[in-house]
Structure formats: structure tokens, C-alpha cells
Write a structure and sequence with these properties.
There is one protein chain. The protein is an alpha/beta fold and 246 residues long. Strand 4, helix 4 and strand 5 form a beta-alpha-beta unit. The termini are close together. It has an eight-stranded parallel β-barrel with strand order 1-2-3-4-5-6-7-8, surrounded by seven helices. The chain has one domain: TIM Barrel, CATH 3.20.20.70. 38% of the residues lie in helices and 16% in strands.
Length: 246
Amino acid sequence: MLQVCLNGARSRAECAHLPVNAHELAAAAREAVTVGAQEVHLHPKDRDGRDTLEAAAVATAVTAVRAAIPGVPVGVTTGAWATADPQDRATQIRSWTVLPDHASVNWHEDGASYVAAALLNRGIGVEAGVYSGTPAAQRFLAWPEAHRVLRVLAEITEATPQTAVHTAGILLDELGTATPPILLHGEDAAAWPILQLAASRSLDTRIGLEDVLHLPDGTPAPSNAALVRAAREIIQRTRGTCPDEG
């Protein structure tokens, strides 16, 4: 499975064509799905372009994207940078009027299990974010409800490609006892090597302007769709599949 991560916690200062409002997110999602993305992950934004978990912003973003790509799963963030207190995050989740298919929960953040429980209680799938270089893996594996999550996001935060690939191997070994599927991805300069590693191991992965602003050849990515198209080519080449195969 190839997921597109449309915007992340980035701002227009980092990327002039970053999709921010609901209309832009819907258009970007449609383009990305057209060229091969199978799921969508997005960060709802407030009027100032900052990540928010407020019910109205989540409803507006998710509704617009769903209308553009009917039948494709849509997920959102629950990152602590949007709302620091985990109890406040859980309260916001309980106030959502339009429910995403899934939401990511970062297991190195305080109160992750509390936030995840709020999602599960509303029937929202949980993507358990496990960052490299943190105690997230141990915390997640020790959680009694770990088997209930939709998937584990194995997130490699090292920027140096060689170090990132090595770290990814260690983290995957550590997560070996996890029963949910694993989605492996990297960031910035390490995004493409980690995507290739995920393809070589037949793991789910993701790409998008949240993770990387450049194509594999180093040129600036003009859109999420361009990143997805490049990712599909790498996956197909690595797995030796034909273009119309998954």
C-alpha cells in the first residue's frame, strides 16, 4: 500500500505549493490517487495555516477530500504540536462530527495510549507512530491494546540516508513482535532510500510533501502527485512488477 501524506506540519514558508485549505487538499488528494496513491494522510489547518484538531477544521478537510476521492481511506494527525495536553486531544476527538477512517498517534508523546483509546472508542483506526531514536517502540509493544491498531508507522527520523537505512533495520527488528501491518517511511534526504527499503521488504510505505520536498533526482517536487508517481516507479522497479500491478 502506498499512502500519500499531503502536507504535514509544514507551512507555505517551506513549500509555496503546499496544500493547506480544504479545496487544495481535495485537489492534491485527487491528483495523487489518480497516479497511484491508495490512502491519504493529511493535517487539518486553521486559518493561520497551523495544525489543528478542532472539529470544524477536521470535518471541513475530511469531507472535501472524501468527496474528491470516494472510497479511498482518509486519515489525519493527532500530533501533540496541534494540542499539547493529551486529555484535551481526546476531548477534541470526542467532539469530531466527521470521522476520518484513521488517525496517527505518536507513541513517544505523553498520553499516546489515552489518545489512541479515544480514537478506538469512536471506531477510528489508529496508526501507531513509532519514531526511531525514541522509546516509542517499547512503549507501544507494552500497551495491552497494541493488537487493535490498524498499522504501525515506523518513522525513521535520521536524515543521513546510510544511517537511516541502518536504523530502519534495527527498528523493524524491534517491531518484529508487533502483529499489525507496518508502514515504513523516512524524511527529507532519507525518504527515498527508506521507501526503496520498504519496497524491497514488501512493506507498506508513504510519500508526500509532509516527508520530502524533492524528487529522487534532487529537483524540487512540483506536487504530491509527482512524488507519488516517482514512488510508484521505485516500488515497481524494486519489486520487479509491471506498472498495473500493486
